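User: I'm preparing a small set of examples for a lab meeting where we compare how different chains pack in three dimensions. I only have the primary sequence for this one, and I'd like the structure in token form so I can line it up with the others. Please keep the answer compact; I'll paste it straight into my notes.
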Amino acid sequence: MKLKEIIPRRLISVTPDRTIAEAAKVMVENNIGLVVIRDQDHGRLRGVVSERDIIRSIAGGAGASGSIEGISTREIVTVRWDSEVSEAAKAMNKHRIRHVVIVDDADIPIGVISMRDLVGERSTLNAILESNDKEVFVGGD
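Assistant: Understood. Below is the structure token output for the 141-residue chain.
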């Protein structure tokens, strides 16, 4: 099964000039755990910010009016839209993350897939389990 068959919804993104509070509001309004930061002009990927990033930032003393780009992760794990679902699962497992950004042929972000998305569909789980690579999920810590 290909990722393009299960991308759950349109990409939710913010521009780098948004504040931490604004990005958190976007996440709450859209019930998402990760927001993509994209260039306003070209739509290129600049970073991602997760709920955990925001909590760590606030707990560390950063104000909610700080720049979202300042707390973003810039080493973004991406998977091509025409990849197998198991590739997204392997990427999450390898990098110990809960979201990957799905990109098109030009490396423009088109969606985000979460671990919840992968485990929420029986057909998706079957596709992962039927993957030729038996190291999709590795035992716990």
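A couple of notes for your slides: The chain has five helices and six strands. The helical segments are 20-30, 51-59, 85-95, 115-119, 122-129.

User: Perfect, thanks.
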